[in-house]
Amino acid sequence: QVQLWESGGGLVQPGGSLRLSCLASGSISSNNVMGWYRQAPGKQRELVATITSGGTADYADSVKGRFTISRENAKNSVWLQMNSLKPEDTAVYYCNYNGIWMLRRIDSWGQGTQVTVSS
Hints:
Layout: E1 2-7, E2 10-12, E3 18-26, E4 32-39, E5 46-52, E6 57-59, E7 67-72, E8 77-82, E9 91-101, E10 104-109, E11 113-117
Parallel strand pairs: 2-11
Antiparallel strand pairs: 1-3, 3-8, 4-5, 4-9, 5-6, 7-8, 9-10, 9-11
């Protein structure tokens, strides 16, 4: 099992910035992928950004150039720096961990943190 704790959401004006944090604990493998997903009201959960334990990042087209994902393996932590926020970024943001432990795939989710972009 892997547990995830998120923090950093809140209310911000359009054009503003927020930084989300996610701390993982438990059966964490050396090779894994962590990421951020979001779900807006009435919509399906969608990928925002992922990063491998080797540091390779991938982004949704809608956030490229505005969001930056980073991680520190020694701290089992991942962050999402969100700049130039838009109202359409409003959603619950979820941290995700995906890895293999003892030949078994672990796919864990955090509880979510609300991000609201509004004037």
